[in-house]
Design goal:
The structure is a homodimer.
Chain A lengths: L8 H8 L3 H7 L7 E4 L7 E6 L4 E6 L3 E2 L2 E5 L4 H16 L6 E5 L4 E5 L5 E2 H6 L7 H15 L7 H12 L2 H11 L19 H9 L1 H16 L3 E3 L8 E4 L2 E4 L6 E3 L2 H17 L4 H25 L16 H28 L13 H21 L6 H7 L1
Antiparallel strand pairs in A: 1-2, 2-3, 3-7, 4-5, 6-7, 8-10, 9-12, 10-11
Helix pairs in contact in A: 3-5, 5-11, 10-11, 10-12, 10-13, 12-13
């Protein structure tokens, strides 16, 4: 473990040269390596280091938000990302990057470089994402959620895993504030939107007491329902894609919560892309249907064949609980609908918005897409607990 | 902190004599003190120590279950009881005993001696409990639940408190096994019941796959719903009563969970007493109605006047959320109904049964009471999510 310092390209190379495993992976000597900064997310510094034999991806926390250095942020977030990788990797295999090395002093992760992959959001915006990617994401969520659930683990093991991620306070605070609260507060200076065109809708959202009650119902679900270990930030910018190889990255927001949180966030990002880009809407609807079907299949496959190792479900044989399955998936759908609504609103008027809107044909198209997102988001939050099926969800977006 | 050894009366007096605060409280010198063992619960050793100026109650963990020395049990349970007292005391005041001293090495709690109080279960069985006691228990649950909820605390504080009690593994394991699972397993040797008179009902409960699905729904609620810090074992043997002074003791099972767990367990113990003892049934029904009304009033009072200090509820003014209140109390009722059903079954055929049944008029009366408890318990578990109000609950018991 090393003392913390923000690593420049050359400091990073010096550090990697002290690690025999990584030196072997890169090949040659440090003088042969090239470190290239590719930071893209809001929070951290990312380098790709390439040597004669291979390359690695290095991610280091900064003591502040990368895109807003006045916003102080504890360094520990990369530790939670590494712990998330360790926790879900046995269940999801190569749907995440391989973790090569963690330095808890430098808050540095060294992992598989997905050199031939593209960020899914960029691929969608450029129109080059292959159809069907959402099936892989559905599988990922189904497998990770089952493996970390009370059905798969004794409650003692769930408690221990949940406690580990209950210390992920700084990033969970971001979710609680930016996703679940701020967009509904008129006094919040982090909000911003296309003005004057969205002023009327923003005012309506921020003055709607009935909506706020429904938002709080989702806050309660996020906070009090410990169903499974979530990715916690599963938008299209947290996915890397290369043909049919789809990888989930950036698990630093991981925390126990309701499974529908991950699904809803991903669904919302597909819906918003469909609204923004001409010709994408039917495609995105197909992907959402695929996401849900593959989530359901993956979760059920583990439920049926995983045996009853956890404390939940030890009384029934999986084959006998058709009504319980129906209830379970309806409840996940309710959460997914509500959290999709929250994500649509916060990505349209909150602190962290999305590039998809800028890919609209023109300003009128962008405004139309953003207005649809706000209105649909509001409707989904309010109707969340009445929407039981994927067909009903697709009727509402 | 001292090295662990099970304390005899004289070792306990020697230990207390080293503590100036307790010496002052007892008065005189160690030679003037008398320690009397009054162990009554299943798990621990309890002494009352009396001196010229006052008395204290001392509770020490044994490395096994007191009533079954072959059942090994970690010592730490008294630590969780002390932590529970510390956590709820600011919210519930004198509804619990005052904690004077905790020795984490001896696993010893020294607390207020409730010398003039009687265990509520004994008072009920003897018919000497004053009517109206349940109002105090409802208040206790309402105040403790609100104070440890996401409405009262920032999520960081709830996470920290929840984590503290997530280490209460041995006693939570008892709840998961004895309350939520074992009674439904025919192969579980800890179960016992009046045979042959209950054989038919026990077989039916243990072969009923639809019931088992409903039981698992309650398992999921207990495990995955972190609404508030529970007492975790709130039966009539965990209450001390003296006139209108009602105290909740024995918080060693404390863990985060659904608020309805505590309410349901207490309701079940009242229902079973009403079934067992001639003339108690209407009285117990009145107490159940009082419990619910006072829980509701106490929780709402804090919700309305406590301000929105937590992360849940920061968007709405309490006055504006009538529909949310209705939803919240319905959901607590659903849980209370389901957990009441589980408690009735486990106290009738499981490991730890209740003395109330032995107070029935005769064996026929006892069998009738136990059969009613099993049938009502089964019905409550299955209908839990359809019973929305206290009136509907009383119609079903």
């Amino acid at each position: 473990m090393s003392a913390y310092r923000p690593l420049s390209a050359s400091l990073l190379i010096d550090h990697l040269a002290t690690l025999p495993d990584l030196t072997a992976r890169l090949g040659g000597k440090a003088a042969d390596w090239i470190a290239r900064e590719v930071s893209d997310g809001n929070l951290n510094t990312v380098f790709i280091v390439t040597g004669p034999a291979g390359s690695v991806c290095c991610k280091q926390s900064l003591p502040y938000v990368r895109v807003d250095p006045n916003w102080a942020m504890p360094l520990e977030r990369t530790l939670f990302e590494a712990r998330w990788m360790q926790a879900v990797s046995p269940a999801v295999g190569h749907q995440i990057s391989e973790l090569y090395h963690l330095d808890e002093g430098l808050f540095l992760i060294v992992m598989e470089n997905l050199g031939s992959h593209q960020v899914l959001r960029s691929a969608l915006v450029s129109g080059v994402a292959p159809a069907g990617f959402a099936a892989r994401i559905g599988e990922f969520v189904g497998h990770a959620a089952y493996a970390t659930s009370w059905r798969a683990l004794a409650f003692e093991d769930v408690y221990a895993l949940r406690d580990k991620f209950s210390r992920n306070l700084a990033l969970t605070r971001i979710t609680v504030d930016l996703v679940l609260t701020d967009p509904y507060r008129s006094a919040c200076s982090r909000n911003h939107w296309l003005s004057p065109e969205l002023d009327d809708l923003v005012t309506a959202l921020q003055e709607d007491a009935v909506l706020h009650t429904a938002v709080e119902r989702m806050q309660e679900r996020f906070l009090s329902s410990s169903q499974a270990l979530l990715h916690g930030d599963l938008h299209t910018g947290s996915i890397m894609i290369s043909g049919d190889d789809v990888r989930v990255i950036d698990g630093e927001f991981a925390v126990y919560g309701p499974i529908g949180f991950d699904l809803g966030m991903f669904i919302a990002n597909l819906v918003m892309n469909g609204y923004a880009q001409t010709g994408h809407e039917d495609w995105m609807r197909d992907e959402i249907a695929l996401l849900w079907a593959s989530f359901r299949r993956a979760y059920l496959e583990r439920w049926e064949h995983g045996g009853a190792q956890g404390d939940l479900g030890s009384l029934t044989q999986p084959a006998s609980c058709g009504t319980e399955r129906t209830r379970f998936f309806q409840q996940v759908m309710h959460d997914a609908v509500g959290f999709a609504g929250l994500e649509m609103i916060r990505r349209t008027i909150g602190f962290a918005q999305i590039a998809d809107y800028e890919a609209a044909q023109d300003r009128a198209g962008e405004i139309e897409a953003r207005r649809r997102a706000l209105m649909t988001g509001r409707s989904l939050i309010q109707k969340a607990f009445q929407i039981d099926t994927i067909e009903a969800l697709l009727d509402h977006v």
